[in-house]
Amino acid sequence: MQDYIFNTTNEKIDTSEIDRVIKFACKHLNIKNPLLNIVIVDNEKIREINREYRNKDAVTDVISFAFEEVNDVEYDDIRFLGEIYISYERCKSQASDYGHSVRREFCYLAVHGLLHLLGYDHMNEEDKKVMRALEEEILNEYDIKR
Q1: What is the mean pLDDT of residues 111-124?
Q2: Are β-strands 62-66 and 5-7 bridged in parallel, bridged antiparallel, or unpaired?
Q3: DSSP codes of every residue in the chain
Q4: How far apart are CA 123 and CA 40, in angstroms?
Q5: At a CB cut-off of 8 Å and minimum separation 6, what does 86 contact?
């Protein structure tokens, strides 16, 4: 993967950890040659995206747009997964609320967004259990504990 993480906020954010956890998760999930973008935004921008694309006028932590939901998008063995938008402001506040590090929350949101790109969801309890277990498995093996 090449540069695919974009910080659109005014904050200095070290994105190297997100790069490593995404690469680890893709390897763990046996995703070969993934291509995706991660865009780090502020609360105002994620609220705008949430309102425009999900008809929800509220700040959220992460939104994913999966390319594969539209088509099976593959070209020269590259798997085009989609885009993940993460609110860094929301990430920091949730880390505080949940009593863990911003590092852990940031990695969690990136993995959560990646799993959405791969078709996982948490709309019902059974799907939620599957997705949560996979998130924890990836983060624990990456050595990010609660």
Answers
A1: 93
A2: unpaired
A3: --S-EEE-SSS----HHHHHHHHHHHHHTT--SEEEEEEEE-HHHHHHHHHHHHS--S--SEEEEESTTTS--EETTEEEEEEEEEEHHHHHHHHHHHTS-HHHHHHHHHHHHHHHHTT---SSHHHHHHHHHHHHHHHHHTT---
A4: 24
A5: 38, 39, 40, 41, 46, 61, 62, 106, 109, 110, 113
**For the chain, what is the mean pLDDT?**
91
Structural domain spans, the chain: 5-141
pTM of the predicted model as reported, rounded to 2 decimal places: 0.91
Q: Residue type for 34, please?
A: P
pLDDT tens for each residue of 24-48: 999 999 998 899 999 999 999 999 9
Spatial distance between the Cα atoms of 60 and 20, rounded to a whole number of angstroms: 24
Nearest CA to 109 out of 130, 128, 87, 79 is that of 87
Amino acid type, 48: E
Instruction: Tell how far CA 123 is from the center of its chain.
Output: 17
What residue type is assigned to position 32 of the chain? K
CATH of domain 5-141: 3.40.390.30
